[in-house]
C-alpha cells in the first residue's frame, strides 16, 4: 500500500464513523483538522482498522504480527495537543491552508489544536504586524516579508514565538513584534528567523531573538529545552504514555543506542534505567541540546553524538549494544540502515514510527532476523490521517 492509498483508507473509514458537531468554526474547510466532524472514538477505531489492513496485507503475520492484540491508544484529550503550530501570513490572511487547496489560506479566528492563549499570542503578533504596515509574503509572486508566525508550546503551556520572514528593511518593526509577543501570557521568548528562499518552509536561520532563546519542556522527571527550529514530539497529552512504553520495551540493559535522538527526549527518559545511552542525531543544534540537557541535570551516562545514523552504524561492531531505539523521520530507516542493524544485530529493536508505510517496508527487511514481539498504535495526531506506531522486535 502506498502513502496516498493509506491516507484515503483512513479517510474513508473515519468518514463512515459517527458524525458530531465540530468544536472549531473553521473545521469543515481548514486543512489543519480533517476529521473534527467525526466522533473521536470512531477516528481511533478507524485508524486501528486501517493499520490492521495495512499490516495484514504486508504479510506481517509471518514475522509475528497478531491482529487480535493490536490496539491504538487514544490521545487523552484530542484537542489542544500540539507542541508546534505554523500559521501562514499571506495576502492579508493569517491561518492555515484550506483542505486540498495549497495556495488558499483560511483566515482563522481560533484554533483548537493548541490552547487558546497560544493561538492568541500568535494572532496578536499578526495583528501588530498589520498595525505596523508590515507586508506579508505572497506565496505566488514571492514578494513581501512576513511568511509565518510559529508557536512552540511546552506541556506546561509556556510559549516560544517565532516569525519567519523574507529579507527586508524591517528591523524596527521586528523589535516591535518582539515587544508585543513578550507581553502575551505565557510567552518566554521571541525569535526572528530568515527564510529568503522560494521554498515555502516555516523554518529559517536565526537572525535575532528577544527574551529566552529556548523553551523549557518538562517531560515527566526530565527537563529539556527546544529552539524555534528543533524537532519535538507532537502530542503533549500522549507523550508520557509513549515514553513509558518505550522504557518498558527497553528494560534495564547495559547500553542502548538512541538513534535519531533529537534533543534527547527518549534518551534522557531512558538514562535512569540503563547503563549507558548513546544518542545519535544529525542536526547539530539538536545534538548540542541533548548534550546540554544531560550536563544540566547531572546525567553522566548519556553520550550525544552529532552524526548521520548510517555513518555512525558503519563504525559499530556486531552486538555493540544489546538494544537500539530508532525514531526516524517519515522516510523511515531505509534499506541501508536496516542492513547495518541486521549486521550489528542488537537483541532488541524498539522502533517508534510516524509513518506506517515506511515502517512496514523496514519491518519486511528486518524480518529476515527479527520477530515482532509487540505492536501498538498511538494517536499522536487526532483529527488528522497521521498515526504513530511503536514496534518492538527481538
Ligand atoms: C522523528 S524525530 C525523533 C527525535 C527524537 N527521537 C524525539 O523523540 O524527539 C527524527 C530525528 O531524526 C533526525 N534525523 C533525521 N535524519 C537523520 C539521520 N540520517 N541521521 C541522524 N539523525 C537524523 C532529525 O533531525 C530528528 O531530530
UniProtKB/TrEMBL annotation:
SUPFAM superfamilies in the cross-refs: S-adenosyl-L-methionine-dependent methyltransferases
Family per record: Belongs to the class I-like SAM-binding methyltransferase superfamily. RNA M5U methyltransferase family.
Domain of life: Bacteria
Active site: 354, 354 (nucleophile)
GO MF terms held by the record: rRNA (uridine-C5-)-methyltransferase activity
Protein name, as recorded: (Uracil-5)-methyltransferase
Annotated binding of S-adenosyl-L-methionine, by residue: 233, 260, 281, 327
InterPro entries in UniProt: MeTrfase_TrmA_AS (IPR030390), SAM-dependent_MTases_sf (IPR029063), U5_MeTrfase_fam (IPR010280)
GO biological process, alphabetically ordered: rRNA base methylation
PROSITE patterns recorded: SAM_MT_RNA_M5U, TRMA_1
Alphabetical UniProt keywords: Methyltransferase, S-adenosyl-L-methionine, Transferase
Pfam families, sorted: tRNA_U5-meth_tr (PF05958)
